[in-house]
Amino acid sequence: MCGRFALARSPEELTRVFDLAESADFAPRFNIAPTTDIAVVRRSPMGARVLHRLRWGLIPPWSPDPHRGAPLINARAETVTAKPAYRAAFQQRRCLIPADGFYEWQAQGRTKQPFTSATRRARCWRWRVSGRPGRSRRAAGYGRPVS
């Protein structure tokens, strides 16, 4: 995953791309940061694909106070099934995060310069994600373009 990403597509376009039964309303954003609400695709209790808004970040299950401290925002794909903070969420609660591009920073002396990685041919990225109902969600996987 990354530290920031962009989603310029409309809810209507995501409804078409992901064949959604229901869609949340949101505006295009080009600098989406951790701990903010993001658009995610997940299954409803009835099994239909829906677009919801969830907070980006995972509060570990052993945290005594979900409002204290910074939530976890990234997991390594090669260790997500083994780390206690991510294991249950990865196995039981998943969703997709649609994105048009993401940002990585490169050190240039004392400052960091952001660089955008975007998809080609108007494709949309999706990230596999896990989360826990009633708490924040977090990314745990890899990006893959979808048409």
Structural summary, described in words:
With 147 residues, the protein is mainly β. It contains two helices and ten strands, in the order βαββββαβββββ. Strands 3-1-7-8 form a four-stranded antiparallel β-sheet, with no helix packed on it. It has a three-stranded mixed β-sheet with strand order 2-5-4, with helices on one face. The longest helix has 8 residues, at 11-18.
Question: What brief labels describe this structure?
Answer:
single chain, 147 residues, mainly beta, 4-stranded antiparallel beta sheet, 3-stranded mixed beta sheet, 10 strands, 10% helix, globular, disordered C terminus
Total beta strands: 10
Q: Count of helical segments?
A: 2
Name the average pLDDT: 78
Q: Main β-sheet, in a few words? A: 4 strands, antiparallel
Our estimate of the beta-strand percent is: 35-45%
Order of helices and strands: EHEEEEHEEEEE
Radius of gyration: 15 Å
Strand order in the largest sheet:
3-1-7-8
Low-confidence stretches: 130-147
Outline: globular
Given the helix and strand composition, which structural class is it? mainly beta
C-alpha termini separation? 20 Å
Helical fraction equals under 10%
Topology (SSEs and partners):
Blueprint: E1 4-7, H1 11-18, E2 22-23, E3 29-32, E4 37-43, E5 49-55, H2 87-92, E6 94-99, E7 101-108, E8 111-118, E9 124-131, E10 137-146
Parallel strand pairs: 2-5
Antiparallel strand pairs: 1-3, 1-7, 4-5, 6-9, 7-8, 9-10
